[in-house]
Amino acid sequence: MSEPALTVFFATRNRAHAIPRVLEAFTGLRSPEGGWKLVVTDNGSGDDTLAVLQGFAGRLPLTILSCPKPGKNRALNLALPELQGRLAVFTDDDVLPDADWLVRLLAAADEHPEADMFGGTVAPEWPRPKPDWLSEEVVEFSMLYSQQLRPSGPCGFADIFGPNMAIRADLFRAGTRFAEHVGPDGTNPLYAMGSETELLRRLEVAGHRGWFEASARLRHIIRPEQMEEGWILERAFRYGAGEGRNYVAGSLPKDILRRVVYRIAAQGMRLMPHSPRRLRIRYRDRWLAGAAAGRQAPQQGSAIPR
């Protein structure tokens, strides 16, 4: 039997209640020429996630792995030896892809041999109408919800988001791996974000180029609690922590006075009603706090072959 054209990867943890909707959407995917493979790693779930996955084994080209030790990047690295085909596609356990998603990604890879990294459209799937204070003019939905809406064309690492990302398989066969010191690991809700971005940035520095394919579309399911201010502020801290840990110090704000000013302003805003101004100030305060925490964290390198 011939090798499939591509392999799709994602890790999941304690999603038995929600993952059936995602897997059901995957059963509606059009297969690219040559077929495809799906590898899902159960990352130490304590619920019925594994049983749910097994229930779809007859409906999807599915390989199920287990990585008991929490860590999304650890789970993805464990799965990479299962890679077959010429393209590795990465996504999340809360997406609803269009039927031609894989066909479009593979066509983009075949039509653009100059690129090694590929991204596609990510549109939020809202559970309810957005409140007036939650606006893209205040905070970037790309950071909050991985929204990415742009035309097709050459792109940089920052244009490719984790729910809709593909990399040529040969890079992983040469030894490329995700850095396991960033991203969710089940131990700290204020973890440093940016695991996919960290990898893509390293690849770009090594000379690899990107292509964005707008026709490769999926929707990112937004949970109700992700529209609450508390969750948004935690996300701001994690985003700042990822920036502080992964990027050079000179690219981050060093002005201690600015942090103090935002801290005072944010404390005052807690007493005010919800508004775009309140969110803007409190969000910036948490981002600055996360960036400072990330810069103080021990640096953990990971050698990635070119």
UniProtKB/TrEMBL annotation:
Residues 8-173 form the Glycosyltransferase 2-like domain. It comes from the Bacteria. Pfam families: Glycos_transf_2. CDD domains: Glyco_tranf_GTA_type (cd00761). This is Glycosyltransferase family 2 protein. It comes from Belnapia arida.
